[in-house]
Amino acid sequence: MPDAEPRNLFEKFFATVSYMLDGPTVWVKEKIVEPNQKSYPWYHQKFRRVPTIDECYTDDVVCVFEADAQYRRDRQVESEILSILRERFESCTLYEAPDHMEKCTPLFREYENAATNWFIKYGDLGAYHNAKSAYMKQKHRMIWERRHGPVGSGKKTDTVDSTQE
């Protein structure tokens, strides 16, 4: 408690010496350094959200470029999230060695769900893909699900029986 009043001459002397040494550094930090600092470090830069590829006109090259750049950033972030989830599950299995199947199951389910969602969005696109190819994949998946039901559930059965007609 440096703001408390010193009780005796000894404490008053050391408080004065402390203020003499600490005062100029605090003044430089508060008056010079902090006002000139950026509000974020370089690795936490926040990009503004731009229109997605479906909101761009076909001849708007700048919009398509920005949508591709945002798509690459989003893919990189989601890949890193998936990597962190995988590392958490692996460290849990190492830490909980004999009983890891019971104790690490929620982490495994979360990782599997995230991996499935990542594959639905980015999987099977090839090496050189962009926002347009990912958008087309999403569109084709939605058409498939409308015609045949959810992927992996088997073929959709017809509701009208041909013998009743």
Automatic annotation (TrEMBL):
<keyword id="KW-0249">Electron transport</keyword>
<dbReference type="GO" id="GO:0045271">
    <property type="term" value="C:respiratory chain complex I"/>
</dbReference>
<keyword id="KW-0679">Respiratory chain</keyword>
<comment type="similarity">
    <text>Belongs to the complex I NDUFB10 subunit family.</text>
</comment>
<keyword id="KW-0999">Mitochondrion inner membrane</keyword>
<keyword id="KW-0813">Transport</keyword>
<protein>
    <recommendedName>
        <fullName>NADH dehydrogenase [ubiquinone] 1 beta subcomplex subunit 10</fullName>
    </recommendedName>
</protein>
<keyword id="KW-0496">Mitochondrion</keyword>
<dbReference type="GO" id="GO:0005743">
    <property type="term" value="C:mitochondrial inner membrane"/>
</dbReference>
<dbReference type="InterPro" id="IPR039993">
    <property type="entry name" value="NDUFB10"/>
</dbReference>
<keyword id="KW-0472">Membrane</keyword>
<dbReference type="InterPro" id="IPR019377">
    <property type="entry name" value="NADH_UbQ_OxRdtase_su10"/>
</dbReference>
<dbReference type="Pfam" id="PF10249">
    <property type="entry name" value="NDUFB10"/>
</dbReference>
